[in-house]
Amino acid sequence: MEIKTIHKMETQAMKKSHVELGRLGMALFFLAGVLLYTFMISGEVPNNIFLVIAAVFGGYMALNIGANDVANNVGPAVGSKALTMGGAILIAIIFEAGGAIIAGGDVVSTIKKGIISIDAFEGNTQDFILAMMAALLAAALWLNIATMARAPVSTTHSIVGGVMGAGIAAAGFSIVNWPTMGKIAASWVISPVIGGVIAAGFLFAIKKTIVFRDDKMTASKKWVPVYVAMMSWAFVTYLILKGLKKVWPSIVSWVNESLFFTLEATKKSSLMTALTIGLMAAVLVYFWVRRTVRRKAPGLDNTRESVNLLFTIPLIFAAAMLSFAHGANDVANAIGPLAAINDAVLHGGISSKAGIPLWVMAVGAIGIAMGLALYGPKLIKTVGGEITELDQMRAFSIAMAAAITVIIASQLGLPVSSTHIAIGGVFGVGFLREWLDSTTSIQSEIKQDKKVLKKEKSALKAYRKELRQLEKKTDNSKEDYQHIAKLYRQINKEEGKVKRAKQILKSDEKVVHVKRDTIKKIITAWIITVPTAAIFSALIFFMLKGVLA
Questions:
Q1: Among residues 74, 216, 340, 360, which is most buried (max CB within 10 A)?
Q2: Residue 34 near residue 55, CB atoms below 8 Å
């Protein structure tokens, strides 16, 4: 038996190692393709080696964004069983890449969030290029480490830390815009708290208006269309303000030429315009969902599971829209420094804005898609089920929180992280469940489970003690041996009871407990993201500088 077990373990280990080698091989193949293509298109450009290396760093950063950050958009949908892992990855790849290519824009800021001053480089183009290269590699390395540790962290904060560290190494502490860094540090608290409160608020509303009602289907007919319409309003507004902000002038031009109404020709949409368009979409969605729910409700049981089914399709759309907006915005974390280096190499100067060539955008979009497909499932599982148990209603509330928090924060000028918002939403629904369940019978069930477990353990201990006493005797009678055989059977049976009691207790505790160890790990990773990326970046900058010296 032991040999067979060892053989099975060896077989599983070999399979796992082959899968890991396959993933690594595909990632390296992508980076090699980036290197060769960049070298071919820049062969006549002076100092093209900087651009070639930077392109590889940018590709590596994009892979890590896909592996870590995208999990926040689809993780809740997977954890709630609204999407399979394969379906979630497919949707995320399509919409992340679509958002990056369609709405990623044609110009990007060379310095993320203005955290350092370009003037401090005093026209030293080489130091600027090295700083951007160091920032890219440092951020990518930190994301890689965080992904291995199954800790979802902010890619924006990673690149911010990288740029800050390289900037300090290049020009000293005075280069940093410390008030801006203070706001970013504040977002470590602001983002998860707002996201958690909004997610918990929506889940509580759904429970009060639908789940806690005796006739859940009648309540669903009334309230599910309202909640889905609110989600549509929030997501259309969110998409216009964040996902489509870089292509808004083109959208305005098309609308004014093709439709029956006109939009004001502005560089980006105002909040009122976005809210108005969102409200129009919400009204249409409301009537469509109301008709759909009324058609489906008669065939559903009056259960919580049936209510969850009604939120499945909206949740899939939410995952798609979050992925699109993320691709449009956060692709800049990979290609922003790369576009800055490309601009500096081609034009021999430093600019606050840089154009994004199609090949640079492709590196970011394809890299994010590949990173998600190869390494994304680890973080998707963490976000979807390793913090707290999710169903469709909880995941729906988290998606709502993600959209609404970004809208509120952008209008108040608060720096927030989409990662922190999403994870904060997961925390929020988890802690709400604990609070609600503490007032219900589940706590008494857990107490009863513990009593049963204690009783079974005591019985098992008594049987084992009696067995030891009989086995120590040297003059056992026939009846003693028969009793010993009976004790072995009872011990075996009791061990099964103890195991079952532990399983029941664990299952009931899972209903109410947010996993504290996972929370501690994630929060620790958030706190050290910026300083760790900054330290990595400074060290890499000095290494690059030393190689070229």
A1: 74
A2: yes
Q: Are residues 297 and 222 in contact, defined by beta-carbon separation less than 8 angstroms?
A: no
Cα–Cα distance for residue pair 34/533, rounded to 1 Å: 24
3-state secondary structure of 249: helix
Task: End-to-end CA distance of the chain: give it in Å, rounded.
Answer: 63
* Per-residue model confidence as pLDDT tens digits over 449-461: 788 888 888 888 8
Residue 8: count of CB within 10 angstroms of its CB: 10
**Alpha-carbon span 46 to 346, nearest angstrom:** 8
The count of other CB atoms within 10 Å of the CB of residue 304 is 13
Cα–Cα dist 212/222, whole Å: 14
**CA–CA dist 248, 237 (Å, integer):** 13
Q: What is the pLDDT of residues 396-416, one digit of tens each?
A: 999 889 888 888 877 777 667
Are residues 94 and 87 in contact, defined by beta-carbon separation less than 8 angstroms?
Answer: no
The CA angle 266-400-387, to the nearest 5 degrees, is: 135
Element containing residue 108 per DSSP (H, E): strand 107-109
Helix or strand or coil: residue 246?
helix
Give 1's pLDDT tier (boundaries 50, 70, 90): very low
Angle (nearest 5°) at CA 163 between 144 and 541: 80
SS3 (DSSP) at 439: coil
Measure Cα distances from 260 to 41, 219, 271 in Å.
45, 38, 21
Residue 474, classified by CB atoms within 10 Å of its CB into exposed (0-12), middle (13-18) or buried (19+), is exposed
- Across the strands, what pairs with 116? 176
**CA 334 – CA 375 distance, rounded (Å):** 17
Using CA atoms, how far apart are residues 354 and 368, in angstroms rounded to an integer? 21
Angle between helices 155-171 and 125-148 (to 10 degrees): 140
Residue that has been written with the tokens 């499945």 in this structure: 312
Burial of 250 from C-beta contacts in 10 A (0-12 / 13-18 / 19+): exposed
Q: Report helix, strand or coil for 355.
A: strand
Alpha helices in 207-247 (DSSP H): 216-238
Buried b (16+ CB within 10 A) or exposed e, 100-135: bbbbbbeebebbbbebbebebbeeebebbbbbbbbb
Please give the angle made by the CA atoms of 300, 305 and 307, to the nearest 5 degrees: 65
Q: Residue holding tokens 């918990």?
A: 200
